[in-house]
Design brief:
Elements (H helix, E strand, L loop, with lengths): L4 H8 L9 H6 L15 H18 L7
Length: 67
């Protein structure tokens, strides 16, 4: 027996729409980068943050709702 998403949400008691497809999740995604003190971050953390931010900036061209 296969249940649809609406039935599963009702069984689990989830009232609001639950997004399960990557496209739906990305459409509702909000990204925020908070100010930080570079002197208190390791070089690895700073490098990771820069790469992550650049990845989201690249993605925002496809989906302007990210920023």
């Amino acid at each position: 027996m296969i249940f649809n998403q609406e039935t599963i949400q009702k069984i689990l008691g989830i009232a609001e729409k639950t997004y399960i497809k990557p496209e739906e999740m990305a459409d509702k995604l909000n990204i925020t980068f908070y100010p930080y003190d570079e002197t208190k971050q390791s070089a690895n953390v700073l490098k990771f943050r820069q790469k992550l931010e650049q990845a989201f900036i690249g993605f925002s061209g496809q989906n302007s709702r990210l920023f």
